[in-house]
Design brief:
The chain has 118 residues and is α+β, with helices and mostly antiparallel strands. The chain contains 2 helices and 11 strands.
Length: 118
């Protein structure tokens, strides 16, 4: 019985310890028709932006400090094929699909009243 009680107390402590840390993924360019600059920054109050990680970043994209980034959507890379039907379909659609990307924003010391500004 004591073992179960200790496990319960530990779980309650662990949940309350990590409840103020969350992560948010922000996606860019889901409906873009051409290259678009999505550079920006994030802030939260009350709380802090702990760090930002890029999602689907390429060479020209970068995280700047712990609360801003430089990113842009770009045409999706189309794989070459020898299949005539796939080549005809690619010509028909124009190959204008855009690759979306985004950022993971890790927040610390947030509450129910926290507001994230992007």
């Amino acid at each position: 019985m004591l073992r179960y009680l200790c496990s319960f107390v530990f779980c309650c402590f662990a949940i309350s310890t990590f409840a103020a840390d969350i992560g948010v993924r922000i996606r860019f360019g889901l409906t873009d028709n051409g290259n678009t600059d999505w550079s920006g920054q994030a802030s939260v109050s009350p709380g802090t932006v702990e760090h930002i990680d890029g999602w689907r970043f390429e060479q020209s994209d970068a995280v700047l400090g712990n609360n801003s980034w430089k990113a842009a959507t770009r045409p999706l890379t189309v794989r070459r094929t020898n299949n005539a039907k796939k080549q005809a379909k690619a010509k028909q659609t124009g190959g204008g699909l855009m690759a979306d990307n985004g950022v993971f924003v890790m927040l610390h010391d947030v509450t129910d009243q926290s507001v994230v500004k992007v």
